[in-house]
Request: fold
Amino acid sequence: MTTTTRWRALTRHNLFWPVAVLVALLLVNLPFTPDFFAIHMTDGHLYGSLVSIVLFGSPLILVAVGMTLVIATGGIDLSVGAVVAITGALTCSYISDRSDQDALAGVLLAMGLGLLAAVVCGLWNGFLVARMGIQPIIATLIIMVAGRGVAQLITDGQIITINSEPYKLIGGGYWLTLPFSIFVVAAVVAVTVLLTRRTALGLLVESVGGNAEASRLVGIRSRRIKIMVYVFCALCAGIAGLMISSNTSAADGNNAGLWIELDAILAVVIGGTSLLGGRFSIGGTVVGALVIQTLTTTIYTIGVPTQTNLVFKAAVVIVVCLLQSPKFRAKVFGARAKKTPSPPPAEAPAGPTASTGPADSTGPAPKMEVS
Reply:
């Protein structure tokens, strides 16, 4: 295999361009922050820009992983931001009412209630999509709007602050010198990959996304698969809600998880998963989420004005999506599809042939023999 062939095979891998953009964004920070890649130890904890990117990007990774499976079935979930707010609001509200906020049993019960509410939201979305036949964008828009109001009802329109050390561990604590949220994300991603790539579950999800009706006709319970992925997506959003409220030790029903659903969809698309459903890539989604978080960090590092940072972010996302388009790369980089060579024209037979037409002007007409 030649070097050119290997390079072409590498660039055609679904993770090549997302990883290339991620590396490029990281390198852009070096002229502005020379010690950007430096990681140092303070009080037994690792600190640095790279650690911060993974730490602050953990909620987005969780939401994007759940969104990947929903999109793989041909759906979409716009309610994850509201689920983040509901989970954080319910958990913090319960903890704030306890006389001892550091009691582990009370914290675990509060987290269980928050995650249970997230699962209920996922069941509702799955019921509307799979059982009632409502378009996913409309079905999930219901909780996107109403769920934010429910979160504000739980908090009475106020920001609930708590002071609980056990709860602080989830989003702001450290374990084995690293942020604890990194281990939570790693566990969720590992379980998701194990279930979707080591069992038949991933194939079933892709088949439902490819053609739900055909999957049903061959015996696959497509409705059950759809409900399951919406529940899983809501559960991932609930865990992200715990992280966000834990990191700030507060619950904000109005702003918690605001527009995180859009970043999650972008992360899935950047990772190479088609919005039409079918095949998906968990690894690509994780890289896509890191690209978005790195882009946010880069915006603040290079000093982009706050009034234009959204435009700058949109421009970079457009570039990433265009780089992933084979047609765009073919036009920009001059790649051309190899044309199949046409077969050579057939040669005339060597022997004499009879002709019923007029004689050739260059020679005498063939003679016909009569026996």
The first helix runs from residue 3 to 11. The radius of gyration is 29 Å. Residues 336-340, 352-371 have pLDDT under 50 and may be disordered. Residues 80 and 237 are 6 Å apart (CA to CA).
